[in-house]
Amino acid sequence: MQKIRRIVVALCFVAALSATALAQEKSLYDRLGGLPAITAVTDAFISRVAADTRINAKFAKTDIPRIRLHLIEQLCMVTGGPCVYTGNSMPKAHKNMKVTEGEFNALVEDLVGALNKFNVPEKEKNDLLGILGPLKSQIVEVNSSATGTPLPAKFKPAKKLSDSQIKAGPKMKSSKAKSGSM
C-alpha cells in the first residue's frame, strides 16, 4: 500500500510539474516578438511577394494596404496575440483567383524567406507554418505545379479599406474580452 501511495504521489508531482511547464511556455506570438516583429515580417513578406514573378500576377488587383492589415491581424491572432482577424475567409478571399499548388508553395517560400531575414528560430518557424499549412486547401483552386499564371479576369478583389481603417491598424480584442468581464 505504501508503494502505491508513493507512485500516486510521484505521478501527481510529475503532472503538476508538466502543467506548470506548459503554463510557463510563452505563446507563439510572444516567442516571435509580438506585434512589432509580426509587422516587420509581414512587410518583408509583402516585398518578397511583389518581386516574385512566380506569384505577383495574382496580386495585380489587390489593395496592398488591405492585405497588409489583414495579414498582420491574421498572423497576430493565430499565434495567440491580441488581434482579431477582420478579413474575408480564405475561400472567399481567394475565390476565382485560380491559385495553383505551385504558386501556394512559392508564397510559402517567400514567407520562410521573410522569417529567415529576421533569424526566426526553427521551432517558431515550424510552429507558424504548422498553423498556416492547413489553409492550403482553402486557397489552392488548381492542382498544378505551375507558377506565374495570370489572375483570371473574373476575379473580384475585396473593396479597398478607408484611410481611417488603415491608420487604426490591427483590430484588437477589447480589454473586457481579455479579462472575461462583461
Question: Would you mind describing this structure in some detail?
Answer:
The chain is mainly alpha-helical. The chain contains ten helices and no strands. Residues about 15-25 and about 175-180 have low confidence and may be disordered. It has helices at about 1-25, 30, 35-50, 65-80, 90-95, 100-115, 120-130, 135-140, 165-170, 175-180. The chain is globular, with a radius of gyration of 21 Å. The relative contact order is 0.16. The longest helix has 23 residues, at about 1-25. α3 (about 35-50) crosses α4 (about 65-80) and α3 crosses α6.
Mean pLDDT: 88
- C-alpha-based Rg, rounded: 21 Å
* Oligomeric category: single chain
Say how many strands there are. 0
Poorly predicted parts = 15-23, 176-182
Structural class: mainly alpha
**Strand content bin:** under 5%
Distance between the termini: 50 Å
**Count of separate DSSP helical elements:** 10
Indicate the percent of residues in helices: 55-70%
Task: Describe the sheet with the most strands.
Answer: none
Succession of helices and strands: HHHHHHHHHH
What's the shape? Answer: globular
List the helices and strands and how they pair.
Blueprint: H1 2-24, H2 28-32, H3 34-51, H4 64-78, H5 90-94, H6 101-117, H7 122-132, H8 136-139, H9 163-168, H10 175-179
Helix pairs in contact: 3-4, 3-6
